[in-house]
Amino acid sequence: MACLERVPKLSLDKDFPIAVIPAITFCRVNGCATNPAAPAAGRLEIRPPTTSLAVGESEGFALFQVSAAGEGKQVDAAWSIDRPGIATVDAAGHTTAVDFGTATLTASAGGQSVLRSLRIVPDLTGIWVGELLVLEETRVSGTGPFRPPPCMTEPLLPCPKVPLEFQLRQTHDVVTGTGVVLAPLPTGAVGAVTAEWDSISTIRLAGTFRTDEGFETELTEWKSDIDADATSMTGRFTMTDHSTNFWGPQVIMKKFEIVSLARTAR
Fold it and tell me: How far apart are CA 88 and CA 73, in angstroms?
């Protein structure tokens, strides 16, 4: 039923005050929506979308009211965090990572709250120096004579240790850098390093290192546990050597254990 059908058929000129006429005119033109709903306030959103920080790193968060069109307007918020031993937040949303672990950041405004789960990981930025112990050496492909180190067959003989150096950079949980394997040549094999976190304190490194002489080694299956102070790593990994000798291309797979790998400088 049209809304005008619910009111008496009265003369607009005689029976209604001038102030009521616009409302009836609106109803006549737009149907029965005499009380249109207020526009939606939009959703609340924490920005930026950061979900990981390195220990010691800070991020400035803000709360935004976002319209259906995606336009955002910053609003005042009350900030809190459930685990201040892992990360802290001030009244302005400035959040600082204190120790590795997980914490939940909360921003509240107008009776609504928005949560953000944060993962805090160790900061690996710096120069890492150490030694690797060869545990196993196997030829994957190639021809000609091949002899693993004597220690592989003679338990009383010590296996060779390989010097290693990483220079790492880190932003949030993204780790990149360079590495130098100082064997088999004095100049070492150099290459880029990337990383993925298995857990809050376990990381996987990968990279390919090369020398000017054509030697290449690929770092795979590296899984390191980081100590509580983020100053040393332990673990095992595989390196696959690619080289060419008199008999042609050779591919040798070596399994290593980290004897020591410590951060010497930031």
Answer: 25
